[in-house]
Structure formats: structure tokens, C-alpha cells
Design a protein that fits this description.
The structure is a single chain. The protein is α+β, with helices and mostly antiparallel strands. It has 2 domains: 155 residues, Phosphorylase Kinase, domain 1 (2-Layer Sandwich), CATH 3.30.200.20; 249 residues, Transferase(Phosphotransferase) domain 1 (Transferase(Phosphotransferase), domain 1). It is 31% helix and 16% strand. The strands form 4 sheets. It has a 6-stranded antiparallel sheet, with no helix packed on it. β7 and β8 form a beta hairpin. The protein starts with a strand and ends with a helix. One of its GO terms (cellular component) is nucleus. This is non-specific serine/threonine protein kinase. Keywords: ATP-binding, Kinase, Nucleotide-binding, Serine/threonine-protein kinase, Transferase. It holds the Pfam family Pkinase.
């Protein structure tokens, strides 16, 4: 059930649950704009389907009736600042196409307020939904990782930190022929929009600020095992948390990266400014997930303290001042810093690589050989360092053995196949 507290009479009512859609309680003043299939935005963008949603926006597939091509429309919550488009325009570079360029910006007035919107080229899917319970071929993992590293290197070279690197924000580009599909052909190939009626638990009519139907996101992707090198062109998305550390201060307490990908200084140095090194930590975790079947740190139903205990198990002791500052350490470790008897102890980084990457790949006959495994683990060790000032810079990541000998050469071969 969803609770909506924006009834004009001050009453509370609930929506019947619909799995896989945005939070329906956010259809209220200051929240989402109600959109339906067939709506035309800005007099030219006809809504064809939904691509996704987040806490502060919904994203729709639309047909640009003026230019006769498909675009993605990101519609923000009411009255929210569209800082993201300013950063994307600052990063815009025709020679670096892994950063989305806003095509059009406009505002929508609706029952919930004024909503900032922008359009961009649509993407096929994100790496999280592609890789869930599947493995990419070895050459694809290298090319995807190399492409992601180059994207972060470019962002850092322009003076920005992404601030929210994880697989849901790494998108795969659509095949070039997608724009040649008519709407009817698109529906025939990918399916009609999945639409579910929105109803209140009390059976009363919906308010005008809520859509009558919810739309489940369209899936345009394919399985990870079906990916080839031509599918490894990425778009790094969601720059809502991006910032320029040389021009503005973003403290650790203001870090909104998901818990399992969040750099530890956000927890232990909440008043200290974040910098480029925060991206390095999250980048390492994203690369690990691209390579294997499971993340290096469990990200399901865990607390911040459980994440810290996992990090210590896998990577070794916290810096002493952080350790003393961590009041909850006695839940997981004894006075000598050893794991408490009876709790599950996460494996060290070498065994973690075996457990979450190699054993699944071995079953499919596509494991990393000893030399490459050693190079990967060495890179991960130097990126996943607790002290941010001791982590590799992105330029040092680019110069690491695994990137130089495996990731970038694979990416070069990828470009030669296009």
C-alpha cells in the first residue's frame, strides 16, 4: 500500500500496491507529474512507454514528432532544481559520447507544480538489470570496464565528481537501427506498454494530481551472456549528485550513493569534503560487479554497521581513529579486533574474487586466468583503500596493469569491430 498525505481535506488514504512502479504517494504537490501513454509534452513529444523512475524523476520513451526520432524525457519532481543539465552541458563533448547530452530543456506545469524536464537519446538498459543472475563474456567485461574507466577519467579531467557510480546508472546504448522502427513495430518487437489501474484502498475516486494508470518500465535489453563487443558502448547517467570539488564543498554526510557502494569516509569523516577519491571507491565496486555474479559487499537488507564489518573482513583493519570512533564495533569484533565467534565472516579479497566471480565463470568455462586474476585483485586492493588520500587516482587506474594489458586493448578491439 502507498500512503498519500496530500488530500486537500488533510485526510490520509492509501493506494493498492503495484509492484515495479514509482512511489505512488509521490503524486502530490511537490512530487511527480502525472503522465499517461499518448500524452504529448511540449507540443511535440508523444509518450510511447516508460523507461524508468527514481526518487526524484520519471523517465519516458517518447517520439519526437518534429524530428521523427525516439528520445527519452526525464521529468523531475515539482520545483526541483535541474542542476543535472548544467553539469551535462559543461561535460558535453562530441568526442566523448559516454556522457548524455541534453537535447532540449523545458518545464511542465501540472497539478503538482512546475516540473523541470529535459530530453536525451534513449538507452537500451542499465547494467544492473542486464547482469542480474547472469555473466558477461570475458571480452565484454573488459570492454565495459575500460569504457567506464575512461568515462570517469573524462569527468575528473573536467573537474567533476560523478558522486553516484553504480550499475543502475551505467546504461547501454541502443542499436543504431532503433530509430527506424515505427511505433507499431516497436510494440511488436518489445511489447505493448504494461499498464495497471491505480486504485485507492477506500474505493473512492483518485484526485486529479494522480494518474489513473501506472506504467511498468519497458525493458529494451537482452541477457548479459548475449552481449557482444558491439553492445559495450555505455552512457553514464544520473548526474544529480555530481559536483565540482575544486569549486564547491560536498561533505561526507551529504553523500547519497547507495550504502554498499558508498565510500567509507562518508561514514567516518561526515564533516570532511568529498573529492575525486570517492568515485574511485564506487568505481571499483562497479567493476567488480561487471566482472562477476555478485557484488563484493552484500547490498541487500544490511545496515551501515554491517557494511563496515564486511569491509573490514574483506579488506583488513580500519584506520585506528575510525576504529575507535566506530561505537558499534563490539557487535562484530572482540576487544582484539577479531571477528566475534558465531557470526559469518566475509572472505578476504582473494577468496571473495573466487567466490563471487571465478566459481560462477568456471562452471561456464569462462574464468579469468591466473595472470589476469592477479592483476585485477591488485587493482581492486589499490582502489578499495579506506583512507581516500591513499587510493589510486583515475590516472593511476588508467596506468594499472589490468587496464593497460586487458581492459583498454579489448576496448580498442571493440572500436575496430564497429
Amino acid at each position: 500500500m502507498f500512503l498519500n498525505e496530500e488530500d486537500p481535506g488533510g485526510r490520509q488514504f492509501q493506494y493498492n500496491w503495484i509492484d515495479g512502479v514509482e512511489s505512488l504517494e509521490k503524486y502530490r504537490p511537490g512530487g511527480f507529474h502525472p503522465i499517461m501513454i499518448g500524452d504529448v509534452l511540449r507540443g511535440r513529444y508523444r509518450i510511447i512507454d516508460k523507461l524508468g523512475f527514481g526518487g526524484y524523476s520519471t523517465v519516458w520513451l517518447a517520439l519526437d514528432t518534429c524530428l521523427h526520432r525516439y528520445i527519452a524525457v526525464k521529468v523531475g519532481t515539482a520545483n526541483s532544481p535541474m542542476q543535472e543539465t548544467k553539469i551535462l552541458r559543461a561535460l558535453s563533448n562530441p568526442g566523448h559520447d559516454s556522457i548524455p547530452t541534453p537535447l532540449d530543456e523545458f518545464k511542465l506545469d501540472g497539478p503538482n507544480g512546475t516540473h523541470p524536464c529535459y530530453t536525451m537519446i534513449p538507452a537500451r538498459c542499465d547494467l544492473r538489470e542486464v547482469s542480474f543472475s547472469r555473466l558477461f563474456p570475458l571480452e565484454v567485461t573488459r570492454a565495459l570496464s575500460g569504457s567506464l574507466i575512461l568515462a570517469i577519467a573524462y569527468i575528473h579531467s573536467r573537474g567533476y565528481v560523478h558522486g553516484d557510480i553504480h550499475l543502475r546508472n551505467i546504461l547501454v546504448k541502443l542499436p543504431s537501427g532503433f530509430n527506424h522502427l515505427s511505433v507499431e513495430e516497436l510494440y511488436e518487437e518489445y511489447g505493448e506498454p504494461e499498464i495497471v489501474s491505480i486504485t485507492r484502498c477506500d474505493g473512492k475516486p483518485l484526485l486529479s494530481n494522480t494518474p489513473s494508470k501506472a506504467v511498468l518500465p519497458l525493458y529494451l535489453g537482452k541477457g548479459a551472456e548475449e552481449f557482444s563487443l558491439s553492445d559495450t558502448h555505455i552512457l553514464l547517467s544520473d548526474f544529480g549528485e555530481a559536483f565540482a570539488p575544486d569549486l564547491e564543498t560536498r561533505c561526507g554526510k551529504d553523500c547519497h550513493t547507495p550504502l554498499a557502494m558508498q565510500p567509507p569516509e562518508a561514514r567516518f569523516e561526515p564533516q570532511a569534503p568529498l573529492s575525486y577519491s570517492a568515485d574511485i571507491w564506487s568505481l571499483a565496486i562497479a567493476i567488480w560487479e561487471i566482472l562477476g555474479m555478485q557484488p563484493i559487499f552484500c547490498n541487500a537488507y544490511v545496515t551501515a554497521d554491517e557494511i563496515v564489518s564486511q569491509q573490514i573482513d574483506v579488506l583488513g583493519p580500519l584506520p585506528s581513529d575510525w576504529w575507535m570512533r566506530w561505537q558499534e564495533r563490539s557487535q562484530f569484533f572482540d576487544s582484539n579486533g577479531n571477528p566475534k565467534e558465531g557470526r559469518y565472516v566475509w572472505p578476504g579479497i582473494e577468496m571473495a574474487f573466487e567466490d563471487t566471480v571465478q566459481k560462477y565463470r568456471r562452471k561456464r568455462g569462462c574464468e579469468f586466468d591466473t595472470e589476469e586474476t592477479t592483476a585485477i585483485i591488485d587493482l581492486m586492493r589499490r582502489m578499495l583503500v579506506f583512507r581516500p588520500e591513499e587510493r589510486l587516482t583515475i590516472q593511476e587506474v588508467l596506468q594499472s596493469e589490468w587496464v593497460v594489458k586487458w581492459a583498454l586493448p579489448q576496448l580498442k578491439r571493440d572500436s575496430q569491430t564497429v
